[in-house]
Amino acid sequence: MKRVILFLATNIAVMITLGIVTNVLCIFLGTSVAELVGPEYANLAILAFVYGIFGAFISLLLSKPIAKFSCGAKVIDGSEGEAERWLVATVEDLARRANLKAPEVAIYPGAANAFATGAFKNHALVAVSTDIMSQMTREELRAVLGHEISHVANGDMVTLTLVQGVLNAFVIFFSRVVASILTSSEKGSRRNSSGLYFLVVFAFEIVFGILASLIVFAFSRRREYAADAGSANLLGSPSSMIAALRRLGNLQPGALPKSLKAFGIAEGKKTSIWSTHPSLEDRIAALEGRAV
Predict the structure, then answer these.
(1) What is the pTM of this model?
(2) Structural domain boundaries of the chain?
């Protein structure tokens, strides 16, 4: 509930910020809001607000069924076999340590990876691939599960969606503001057809969308360090998480759908500004620093 309130408060703050930034821009340009963006300003602000709130909430509420469908994940209860029984029991134990209701547990076919998703801390989903189950020791896999449980406990799914929703509001608003400036005459009338206006909007949505993605990726990389540290805390030592990351260094992490990449255990061995995860070497170094 606290994060939902934060989400609503943040989006209200976005609307206030949009108004402040627009008025500052008007002062700098020696114009007015009406001349800058036209009478559609109010509708545009509402559109950005609605997109930021409801778009993010919808993606959150649908995150679990979409994850199951996109990965072919099958929810298990532990009755399927000894490995599945251990997996469910381990997730339940880690969730109890993190003061969470045990999430659903699922297995999906594919290369080594794992992820967590869900709109609410106590109604989450933790899924592991068949390959990561077969190629990691149980202590390493336990550390991976601790990492995913930490994502849930930290509310990272909600927080990252909140950040994306806020940035989407800015993208949709400012792409149209810039397009209005570039396609308007000194008197404020459109110099060209509306087709040019929408072409410029499309171009700037791409540009601003890329910039917004860089912010999301940077935030996601920070949350990975926190999830690694959370796993170390749940297990009482960083050694198992370090071992799991080193194991991943000898494997090719499985690709996840775009909506799940930020919550996988790994994206690749290297990193860049376009990565949702830090490099495995940097993550290991951070954990080794905790062990000192």
Answers:
(1) 0.80
(2) 1-70+139-292
